[in-house]
Amino acid sequence: MNRKLTRRALFSIAGALAGTIAFGSSSAGNYPDRSIQLIVPYSAGGPTDVAARVMAQALSERIGQSIVVMSMPGAGGVIGTSYVNRANPDGYTLLFAVNSMAIFPYTRPPSNPLPFDPNAFTPIGSVAESAHVIVANKSIGIKNVADLVEAAKKKPDSLSYGSAGVGGTTHLPIALFAHRAGIKLLHVPYKGAAPAMADTMAGVVSISAPGYTDAVKASIDNGSLVALASTSAKRLPFLPNVPTLAESGYPDMVFPIWYALFAPQGTPTDVVQKLNGALKAMSTDPAYQKQMNSQGNVATYMTPPQLAEMLKTDIAKLGVRLKDAGINLEQ
User: Residue 10's pLDDT band (boundaries 50, 70, 90)?
Assistant: First the structure.
C-alpha cells in the first residue's frame, strides 16, 4: 500500500471527524441533555415568577428535561438579567423576561451604563400577556381613580406607591399616570412586586400596581385591597367589575404586560428553534392555556424575529412617552 496515500486517507478521516465534532458542538440534536436554569429577575411569588413557573413546567414536559426556576431580584430586574447576559450561550441558562426589557435603556446615565444591551439578547419567543391592577389599601378610603386623584391633589406626596424598583413595569404605569393626572405620589421602590403588594396590604404604602394573579384577585375579593383600575385596553375577564384607566378618563394610559423567553447572545440557532417550537405547541395547548388563564395571563406566541421587533418598537415608544412626561429614570 502506498504510504503517501495512507497518510492522505488518515488526514482525510481526521478532518471529517473534526468537522463532525465541531458541528455536533453547535447542534441541538442532543439538546437538552441536562437541566436548564431559568432566571426570573424578580422576587419569588410575584406575577412574573408565577407565570415563569407555569411556563417552565409545560416547557419541561415538551423538551424532556427539568427546568430549575431561580428568582434573582434586584435593581428593577437588572441583576438577574445581567447574570444571564454573562452566561454561556449554550441554551442551559435562559431569561424569563417581562416588558421591563424595554425600560432598561432609560434607567442609567451615560456615566453608569447598563452592563448589557437589551437588544443583544437572543430572542426565543413570547410566552403570555397580562396587565397591571392598581390597588389601594382599604384603610385610606379610596374607592376609585377619581378618589385617588382628588386625595393626591389635596395633599401632594401624602400618598405613596410601592413598585418592584425604579424603571420597573410596576413603577412606570403609576408614574406616567400621576404625571398625566397632574398629581404627586411618593414612590417607594422594593426588590420585587410581591413585597410591594404585601406592604400595600399592610398599609405601609398606599397603593401599588402589581401584575394580575389569583393572589391579587383573592386580596381584592376578601377586601384586603381595593381595585381602582386595570392598565389593560379592555376590562380583564378575571375582574369584570374593575374599570380600566382608559374608562376612568385616561384613554392613553394603557400598559400591557408581556412575558417572553430570551437567551444570551450567540445561542445556537437550532437551540433557539427547538425551544421556540415547544413554545408554539404550548400556546395552542388547552391545558396550558387554562393554567395561564388561572393566573390572569393569556398564552401568546411569537417567532424570534417578531419578538425582537416588538422589543425594539417598545423601546422607541417608551422613549417618547418618558420625554413627553418629563420623567427621568436614570439612577
Answer: very low
Cell numbers placing 169 = 413595569
State the amino acid at position 256 in one-letter form. Answer: P
- Partners of 244 in beta bridges: 230
Is this prediction's pTM over 0.85?
A: no
CA nearest to 135, candidates 42, 203, 51: 203
Q: Distance (Å, rounded) from C-alpha 185 to C-alpha 95?
A: 32
pLDDT greater than 50 at residue 263: yes
Contact 149, 181 (CB under 8 A): yes
What's the length of the chain? 331
> What is d(CA 124, CA 132) in angstroms, rounded to the nearest whole number?
24
Peptide bond into 113 cis (omega under 30): no
CA distance 68 to 57: 9
pLDDT of residue 295: 85
Is 186:210 a contact under the CB 8 Å cutoff? no
Cell 404604602 belongs to 205
Residue labelled with grid coordinates 395633599: 155
The crossing angle, in degrees rounded to 10, of helices 286-294 and 269-283 is 80
CA distance 24 to 39: 26
- Flag whether pLDDT at 169 surpasses 60: yes
65: phi > 0 → left, psi -120 to 50 → alpha, else beta; which? beta
